Amino acid sequence: MFLIQIFTGAIFLFSGFSKTFLKKSSLLALGQTGIENIDVWQIRLIGICEFLGSMTFFLPFCIGFSELLTRATALGFLLMMIFAAQIHFSRGEYKVVLFNILLMILNLIIFSFGPASTLAR
Question: Where are the domains of the chain?
């Protein structure tokens, strides 16, 4: 569970940081094609949510963070990946859809079993 949580958190940390601070053209060059048809302020908002949400996957190891918040974040990321998969599917980007499905599964595991810090109790 520890590795799943760290891996998933790292992906959303990188994605959130990128969407928060990089130009739209740079994001597109990185392969973040799902943001092509949305405004910059929406990209920044998604990035901030991903960045802050990823922190709830790391903080349980540091300060015994709330299990409920980590589960809520996993559920939010799961829903976000459902919408992302729909966007990529409509664009014919099937490899990206498979990655979205992987992230859905990982977030479902975190949501179902709770953060790794609570498993040790």
Answer: 2-116
Structure tokens at 17: 């940081």
The first and second tokens of residue 4, run together, are: 């799943």
The H or E element spanning position 40 is: helix 40-63
Q: What is the DSSP string of 65-95?
A: --HHHHHHHHHHHHHHHHHHHHHHHHTT-HH
Q: 19: closest CA among 44, 39, 38, 42? A: 44
- 118 contact partners, CB below 8 Å, separation of at least 6: 60, 67
Digit-coded pLDDT (tens) for 66-98: 788 889 999 999 999 999 999 999 999 999 999
CA–CA separation, 41 and 19 (whole Å): 10
pLDDT tens for each residue of 7-19: 999 999 999 999 9
Distance CA 47, CA 67 (A): 23
